[in-house]
Write a structure and sequence with these properties.
There is one protein chain. The protein has 86 residues and is an alpha+beta fold. It is built from two helices and three strands. It has a domain at 26-85. It has helices at 2-24, 38-55, and strands at residues 26-35, 58-70, 75-85.
């Protein structure tokens, strides 16, 4: 019985280590843009985010978060999304 418990503990530890290694291969990718209108700023920030993900051969995961604020001229938007190595 004790051998089964040790084997089960070893398997669980190995699973935990592999999950940690997988999580470490993910990043918070981002793109930003300042444009005259909010719609253009959102579009360009999203395009910059997609370019970064593509350039690094990452795979996007989850929803895109977009934050926009007034800039000196126009609107500044920042897009973030989780991306992982393929």
């Amino acid at each position: 019985m004790r051998i089964h418990l040790i084997a089960a503990a070893s398997i669980l530890a190995a699973c935990g280590l592999s999950a940690g290694a997988q999580a470490a291969s993910c990043v918070k990718a981002g793109g930003e843009a300042t444009m005259i209108t909010e719609d253009l700023a959102k579009f360009m920030a999203n395009a910059a985010l997609n370019n970064q993900i593509s350039a690094n051969s990452w795979k996007a995961s989850g929803k895109v978060s977009m934050n926009c604020s007034a800039a000196t001229v126009g609107v500044h938007c920042i897009a973030h999304q989780k991306a992982c190595k393929s």
